[in-house]
């Protein structure tokens, strides 16, 4: 892999990795990610969306590494509140609650944090190293893509995210189509005609990505949290966490096989578009229990249970970056938002990421490896104190998130209209989420809209009237069409199977 | 429970109206520029019809089973919409009072709205918010916020 890199590119990578800006971004991403993850109710997606504007003034390496570090560290951070206060900070740490909190009740909360930290670091490292090794050859596949493939790839990405994050596939697809329509607003590049801008000159250039992203993920989250103010009860903290955070050699040997298997399961699930870190955690937990010699220990505060889910969710988080960077298919909701972050930095996923932008991409991946190690160090040092942050009331956090949302949106263009646009999308996002549509589908539709339309219109010209014949004559198109149909039909078939079982 | 309308009916209803309205706007467009939006709008219309129908079925089920959970809770909605109004007032005030003055008032007011009564906590939060944004965005990222009539 590195033999393909020229000497000056290697020097550039080293330069990037040793810059003060990069180190600051890395630290900020890791610490910020752990804190965001530890806050119940605030997702890693929200964290990434909220902090994208900070990356404007940064170099692509520092900016994207910071976002990737937030993503990885928040996946781990979710386990801290799951273990100590029985409230998963993120959806991927729900499985950790089972054995983690039981360990806390037994007076082994710190040990559980230690297990979670070691497992998350190893899982994250497996994912990040796989990203480094698998991505370059996989990215070569994108060289065979032309307009029809890009159109179908956009449709595939949308169907995947839609089926993943909405209540039903129909709602998910409606969200994706709505997002694509938002992407149609503004001047059409091919004809120069203004579409759906309704007299707003600021919309002639299209809907900017930042206001909808922050509105749909951050402001709508605050609106949903505000609802719960009256009913939220303070979580009782276990005042004293006894024991040591560090594992004995015997304990480490006991969990190592589980960590290894769960990391691989997590990685594979993470690479598969559509299955996220939460599914990885559950599948790994289930596998660890099935193949354990002592399955009865699971659920009673067993270290192996914590190790299985935590290794898997971090491996999946890093694994989800593989289809994103190589083919532009987000493997999870957070990577759909990260896609926006990449585009803002002027980088389009695909083969170019490993040729033209190789010095940037490899620096980001190495940064992610370092971030996973730092995550372990900071996690061990701060876990005790983070339990207090986890129990902070919404009233203390919500104003900060709103102010950061306003500042972040304003910082992008210095235009107050964008802040109103963000609030408007926050309002839409609130109802979209309450009705179980997919806000990730909307964002991905907005991002992929212009790409999908250009691919569609170019393929009409290329097909010379026989569009179906043209698409079916291209092997990659046929594979993508099958995948699209599968991604639409699988959730439908699964829901019928569930109904049948009932 | 006399009347119960599931949220799906409202949201899909809005999508239906939106798709018809936007479709009417495509008639005046160049055929090439209108083609892709037309396909999308027809798709949105079809998806919304399905969700609308399912929403009505859910609404009937709510009335039959008296399932309050599935209904739109108006007291919760009032809280969220009040919060939204505060955000709008905050954004408008940025233009007139300046960013930092508005932010100070907003953080204090919104914390009160969220039920935080401890004055010390509120003051510390205000100071942290203002200082953090000043250090990160004004000093570090050179972003200048609206100044308004004060500063």
Commentary on this structure:
The complex is a heterodimer of chains A (502) and B (151). Chain A is mainly alpha-helical and 502 residues long. In chain A, 72% of the residues lie in helices and 1% in strands. The longest helix of chain A has 33 residues, at 358-390. The N and C termini of chain A lie far apart (51 Å). Chain B has two domains: 7-70; 74-140, no CATH class. In chain B, α1 runs antiparallel to α2 (31-65). Chain B starts with 6 loop residues before the first helix and ends in an 11-residue tail after the last helix. At the A-B interface, α8, α9, α16, α17 and α18 of A face α1, α2, α3, α4 and α5 of B.
Could you outline the blueprint of secondary structure elements for this entry?
The complex is a heterodimer of chains A (502) and B (151).
Chain A: H1 7-18, H2 20-38, H3 44-51, H4 60-85, H5 94-105, H6 109-139, H7 147-165, H8 169-182, E1 186-187, E2 194-195, H9 210-227, H10 249-271, H11 277-290, H12 303-319, H13 321-327, H14 333-344, H15 358-390, H16 394-413, H17 416-434, H18 439-463, H19 467-472, H20 475-501
Antiparallel strand pairs in A: 1-2
Helix pairs in contact in A: 1-15, 2-4, 2-15, 3-4, 3-9, 3-14, 4-5, 4-6, 4-12, 4-14, 4-15, 5-6, 5-12, 6-10, 6-12, 6-13, 6-15, 7-8, 7-18, 7-20, 8-18, 9-16, 9-17, 10-11, 10-12, 11-12, 14-18, 16-17
Chain B: H1 7-25, H2 31-65, H3 74-97, H4 99-113, H5 119-140
Helix pairs in contact in B: 1-2, 3-4, 4-5
Estimate the global geometry of chain A from the Cα principal axes.
globular
Helix content of chain B: over 70%
Task: Name the average pLDDT of chain B.
Answer: 87
- Structural classification of chain B: mainly alpha
Q: Radius of gyration of chain A from the CA trace?
A: 22 Å
Query: What fraction of the residues of chain B are assigned to beta strands by DSSP?
Result: under 5%
Number of helices of chain A: 20
The stretches of 5 or more residues of chain A where confidence is low (pLDDT under 50) are none
- What's the end-to-end separation of chain B, in Å? 54 Å
Count of DSSP E strands of chain B? 0
Write the H/E string of chain A, N to C. Answer: HHHHHHHHEEHHHHHHHHHHHH
Instruction: Trace the largest sheet of chain A across and list its strands.
Output: 1-2
Q: Report the mean per-residue pLDDT of chain A as an integer.
A: 84
End-to-end Cα distance of chain A, whole Å, is 51 Å
Instruction: Determine the strand fraction of chain A and express it as a percent band.
Output: under 5%
Spans of at least 5 consecutive residues with low confidence of chain B: none
Quick one: biggest sheet of chain A? 2 strands, antiparallel
Total discrete domains of chain A: 1
Helix content of chain A: over 70%
């Amino acid at each position: 892999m590195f033999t393909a890199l020229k000497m000056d590119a290697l020097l550039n990578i080293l330069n990037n990795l040793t810059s003060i800006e990069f180190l600051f971004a890395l630290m900020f991403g890791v610490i910020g990610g752990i804190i965001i993850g530890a806050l119940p109710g605030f997702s890693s997606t929200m964290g990434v969306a909220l902090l994208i504007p900070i990356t404007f003034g940064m170099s692509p390496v520092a900016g994207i590494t910071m976002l990737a570090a937030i993503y990885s560290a928040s996946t781990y951070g979710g386990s801290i509140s799951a273990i100590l206060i029985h409230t998963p900070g993120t959806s991927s740490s729900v499985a950790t609650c089972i054995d983690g909190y039981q360990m806390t009740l037994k007076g082994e909360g710190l040990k559980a944090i230690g297990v979670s930290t070691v497992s998350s670091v190893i899982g994250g490292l497996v994912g990040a190293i796989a990203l480094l090794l698998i991505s370059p050859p996989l990215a070569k596949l994108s060289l065979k893509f032309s307009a029809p493939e890009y159109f179908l790839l956009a449709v595939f990405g949308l169907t995947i995210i839609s089926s993943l994050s909405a209540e039903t596939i129909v709602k998910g697809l409606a969200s994706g189509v709505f997002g694509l329509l938002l992407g149609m607003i503004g001047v059409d590049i091919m004809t120069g005609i203004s579409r759906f801008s309704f007299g707003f000159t600021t919309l002639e250039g299209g809907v900017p990505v930042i206001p909808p992203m922050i509105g749909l993920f951050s402001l709508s989250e605050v609106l949903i949290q505000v609802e719960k103010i009256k009913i939220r009860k303070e979580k009782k903290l276990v005042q004293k966490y006894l024991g040591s955070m560090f594992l004995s050699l015997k304990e480490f040997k006991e969990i190592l096989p589980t960590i290894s298997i769960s990391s691989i399961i997590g990685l594979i699930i993470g690479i598969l578009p559509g299955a996220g870190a939460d599914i990885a955690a559950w599948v790994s937990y289930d596998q660890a229990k099935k193949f354990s010699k002592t399955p009865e220990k699971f659920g009673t505060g067993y270290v192996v249970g914590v190790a299985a889910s935590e290794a898997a969710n971090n491996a999946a988080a890093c694994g989800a970056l593989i289809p994103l960077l190589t083919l532009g298919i987000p493997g999870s909701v957070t990577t759909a938002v990260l896609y926006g972050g990449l585009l803002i930095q002027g980088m389009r996923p695909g083969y170019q990421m490993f040729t033209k932008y190789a010095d940037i991409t490899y620096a980001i991946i190495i940064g992610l490896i370092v971030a996973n190690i730092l995550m372990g160090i900071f996690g061990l040092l701060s876990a005790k104190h983070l339990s207090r942050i986890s129990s902070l009331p919404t009233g203390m956090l919500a104003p900060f998130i709103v102010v950061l949302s306003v500042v972040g949106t304003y910082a992008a263009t210095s235009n107050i209209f964008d802040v109103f646009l963000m609030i408007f999308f926050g309002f839409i996002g609130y109802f979209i989420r309450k009705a179980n549509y997919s806000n990730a589908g909307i964002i991905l539709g907005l991002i992929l809209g212009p790409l999908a339309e250009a691919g569609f219109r170019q393929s009409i010209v290329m097909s010379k009237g026989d569009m179906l014949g043209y698409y079916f004559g291209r092997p990659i198109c046929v594979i993508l069409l099958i995948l699209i149909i599968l991604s639409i039909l699988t959730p439908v078939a699964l829901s019928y199977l569930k109904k049948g079982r009932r | 429970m006399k009347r119960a309308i599931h949220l799906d009916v409202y949201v899909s209803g809005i999508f239906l109206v939106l798709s018809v309205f936007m479709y009417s706007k495509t008639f005046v467009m160049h055929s090439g520029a209108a083609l892709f939006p037309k396909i999308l709008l027809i798709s949105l219309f079809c998806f919304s019809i399905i969700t609308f129908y399912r929403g009505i079925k859910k609404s009937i089920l709510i009335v039959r089973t008296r399932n309050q959970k599935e209904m739109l809770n108006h007291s919760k909605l009032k809280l969220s919409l009040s919060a939204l109004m505060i955000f709008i007032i905050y954004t408008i005030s940025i233009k007139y009072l300046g960013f930092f003055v508005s932010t100070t008032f907003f953080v204090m007011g919104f914390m009160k709205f969220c039920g935080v009564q401890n004055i010390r906590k509120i003051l510390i939060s205000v100071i942290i918010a203002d200082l953090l944004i000043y250090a990160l965005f004004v000093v570090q990222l050179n972003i200048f916020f609206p100044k308004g009539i004060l500063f």
